[in-house]
Amino acid sequence: MTQSANDERYLLPREVNIATVRQHPAVLIVPAAQAVCGLVVGLMLTWALPVSQPQRIAVWALVSLLVVYCLWAAARWLTGYLVVTSERLLTVSGVTYRRVAMVPLTELKEMTLVRTWSGRLLGYGAFVNGSGLSAWVINAVPYPEQLYLLITGMLFPSSADDQADEDASVAEDA
Questions:
Q1: Where are the alpha helices (DSSP H) in the chain?
Q2: What is the pLDDT of residues 105-155, one digit of tens each?
Q3: Fewer Cβ in 10 A, N or C end of the chain?
Q4: Contact criterion met (CB below 8 Å) for 83 and 19
C-alpha cells in the first residue's frame, strides 16, 4: 500500500493515515486495448485500402482520439487514490481539478466487499456502502480483502481485540 505526500494535505491534524492506495491498474486495460486496436486498424486501413486523403484524415483523427482517451485514463489513474485514515475514508480524484470525497468511518456500517470473477483473477474488488439511491461505490480497489479487514477492524475494534485475546490464549495453551 503506497503513501503519497499529496494525501497529507487532506488530513485533519488529529488524523492518522492508515493506508493509501491507487485504483488497480486493471482500469487501464480497456483504454489501452482500444488504443492499440485503433492503431492496428488505422495502419491496416492506411496500407491495405486505397483511401483518399479525407478518409485517411478521418481514420487517423479517430485513432488519435483513442490514444488521447488512453492517455487521459492513465492521467486519471495516476492522480487518483483512496486514503483510509483513523477517522475517514477519502477518495481523491481529478486531473484538471481535484475532487475529494469523504465518508466518516462511523457511516460505513453497511459496507460490502464485491469481487467479480475478473476482480478475483486480477486482484481487485469494489467497496459498496448503503443501498438504493444513497449507495456509493469505490471500484477497482487493490488488496480488497486486506483493506476490508483493516476498515472493519477499525469499525469494530472490540471484536478485533477479542480475536487477539483468543489467539494469545491459544498460544499460551500450546
A1: 29-48, 53-79, 117-122, 144-155, 157-173
A2: 888 878 899 999 999 999 999 999 887 777 889 999 999 999 999 998 888
A3: C
A4: yes
Q: pLDDT per residue over 47-79, tens digit each?
A: 877 767 788 888 999 999 999 999 999 999 999
Can you name the residues that pair with 138 across neighbouring β-strands? 127
46: left (phi over 0), alpha (psi -120 to 50) or beta: alpha
Separation CA 148–CA 81 (nearest Å) = 16
Show Cβ contacts of residue 72 under 8 Å, excluding neighbours closer than 6 positions: 95
Q: Cell 475532487 appears where?
A: 99
DSSP secondary structure string for all residues of 25-60: GGGGHHHHHHHHHHHHHHHHHHHHS---HHHHHHHH
Cβ proximity of 69 and 35 under 8 Å = yes
